[in-house]
Amino acid sequence: MIEARSLSKRFHDKKRGEICAVENVSFTCRPGSIYGLLGANGAGKTTTLRMLATILEPSDGTALVFGHDIVEHPEKVRSSVGFLSTATALYPRLTAEEMVEYFGRLNGLDEATLKKRIDDIFDRLDMNSFRDRRCDKLSTGMKQKTSIARTLVHDPPVMIFDEPTLGLDIMAARTIVAFIRECRQAGKTVILSTHVMSEVEKLCDVIGVIHNGSLLAEGTPTRLREEYQEKDLEEIFVKIVTAHVAPHAGVEVS
Amino acid sequence: MSARNIGIVYRKELLEALRDRRTLISTILVPILLFPILTVGVGFVIADLIEKADREPARIMILGGTDSPAIVSSLAKSKNLIVVSGPANYVDLISNKKIRAAVEIPPGLQSGAGTDFAPVKIYMSSGDLKSTTAAKRIEDFFNDYRDNLARNRLTVQKLPASFLKPFVIKQQNVVSAEKVAGETVGGIITYLVIIMCLTGAMYPAMDLTAGEKERATMETILSSPISRTHLVLGKFLLVLTASLVTAALSVTSMGVSSWVIQHFQDQSSGSTMHIKIGLGAVLAVFLVALPLAVMFSAALLTIALFAKSYKEAQSYISPLMIVVVVPAIAAMLPGIELTPRLSLVPILNVSLLCKDLIAGNYHWNSIALIFLSTCLYGGAAIFIAVKMFHRESVLFRS
């Protein structure tokens, strides 16, 4: 479960002064469902997810991730979260196995449990053929699988995906999409940021539309279609965003 | 748990460093090869050049000397001197290296009539090794001639040879071999240790901070449960290891190079070098340099963390070399002694203390003051590094 409570994040820019990247955002993501944070570039998606993953500290507000407060207990939150984005690359000089081992150890797994979990994940993701290959020698698909294995090694109950398919080819993107579905089936709480409508259609149980740092609309795809009298999610997104006159523009810091 | 996490980060960083060609070159290969190349290699090349210049006959010109045929004749027969005749534009000829030196023999030198104080002038090019060698040969010839002349005159006057030299002057070193080492090579060793502590830490510090940002692995590690304090301490320990390994390898390499040079010198000249550096002194130098390496490692980590890329980090860190070189080089300058005030100046204090330690001078008050103050600076640098790792504006600078 993720409960964001009035999350806000302000940055200071030398030229532009204070910038409000996320303002007063609240939402709830439930276990066994996928919450899609939908927004254009710079809308505040990455900043919101980084706050939930405790990589950034909120300026105001807080969130509970698997029952842990992101401000009070950030390390417990990170132990409960698997965070995957295009900005979470692999260490090029480690092998795929060493990479996953490293994160397993950092998550406090003992050696016996770690070995068992790695064997299990590598079998499940069909990674044994490149287990001992250095990450800088892996193909994009292999890298994606290794990143997935890295996020899964401690079996986190919450998964955070920040534009996980950005820049990937179709096959690599399909691997990710399949993995996100598996996470839902496994009963994990999943939050996903994207601006790709097809991904939203395929994956999301609940959609939150974020623009200029504010959450403008929220609901299941069916509810949003009914409310805005539109079948096409892209049209719904445009309607929501254009209807909103932003009194204070926000900029996402990535 | 905290020590375990720091250890996990350290082991992973070490593994990556050992697989990185650039780190291996800067931490291991350069310090091992630098001194043999600089000392043995360059030393042998210089020695070879000097030997060649010594063996090669030099073309010289005699100016005057028409009334001293015996002297001219003897000079012409001297070993490794070829007398050429020609126009008297000896300045141009020496400048253009057509001849290496010219000697002007004053009138009446051979007969000795009224020429007791007339100078024998040798013209040469002081920047040219072959010219100075030729001038030395001419000077040796005339010294011998003068000594023979003086001996003959004493014999005629029935005076003993000691008449001209009633006593001899002899210099003798009375300080220990360690003190000689401290004054001569102590400054160089100290400079080496300080500079290598810095250069050894440079590349890993950039790789572990700006390099992580550039490779987009910073966000990956920040999403793991490890605290940022443990993360920076693990990284810091790796940078410190690299710093100390580089310094240790440099000093070992320098020691071996010096031994090789000394060995060859002893074989060729039969002399023994009166320099001794004890292992204890070297270890003491390392002990004092340890907090300095701590300070360098933490400071470099902090500075490099501000950069978004490896290249940007290089531009921040390169000027630091000048800041360190100046106080480090001060130990090699004569006349700068350790005072209570200088004991608090970072880098310079360690530099001067190390020189003292190699010389065998253990002033415990200074040692304690410098060690503690450097520990304090090192601790402050670690504190700042940890603080910087907690600042979002530094980690996610765009």
Architecture of the largest domain in chain A, CATH level 2? Answer: 3-Layer(aba) Sandwich
Low-confidence stretches of chain A: 246-254
Helix content estimate of chain A? 25-40%
Count the DSSP helices of chain B. Answer: 14
* Strand elements of chain B, count: 4
Average pLDDT number of chain A: 89
Net shape of chain B:
elongated
- CATH homologous superfamily annotation of the largest domain in chain A: P-loop containing nucleotide triphosphate hydrolases
Helicity of chain B, as a percent range: 55-70%
SS-based structural class of chain A? Answer: alpha/beta
CATH class category label of the largest domain in chain A: Alpha Beta
Q: Biggest sheet of chain A, in brief?
A: 6 strands, mixed
Terminal residue distance of chain A: 25 Å
Model description:
The complex is a heterodimer of chains A (254) and B (398). By secondary structure, chain A is α/β, with parallel strands linked by helices. Helices cover 37% and strands 26% of the residues of chain A. Chain A folds into two domains: 1-80 and 161-254, P-loop containing nucleotide triphosphate hydrolases (Rossmann fold); 90-155, no CATH class. Chain A contains nine helices and ten strands. In chain A, the strands form two sheets. Chain A has a six-stranded mixed beta sheet, with helices on both faces. Chain A has a four-stranded antiparallel beta sheet with strand order 2-1-4-5. In chain A, a hairpin with a 2-residue loop joins β9 and β10 (214-219). The longest helix of chain A has 16 residues, at 170-185. In chain A, 48% of the residues are buried. By secondary structure, chain B is mainly alpha-helical. Helices cover 67% and strands 5% of the residues of chain B. Chain B has helices at residues 2-18, 21-55, 69-77, 90-95, 129-156, 177-207, 210-214, 218-222, 228-269, 279-306, 310-330, 348-358, 364-389, 392-395; strands at 58-64, 81-84, 101-105, 121-124. In chain B, β1 (58-64), α3 and β2 (81-84) form a beta-alpha-beta unit. Chain B is elongated, with a radius of gyration of 31 Å. Chain B starts with a helix and ends with a helix. The mean pLDDT of chain B is 85. The chains are: A alpha/beta (254), B mainly alpha (398).
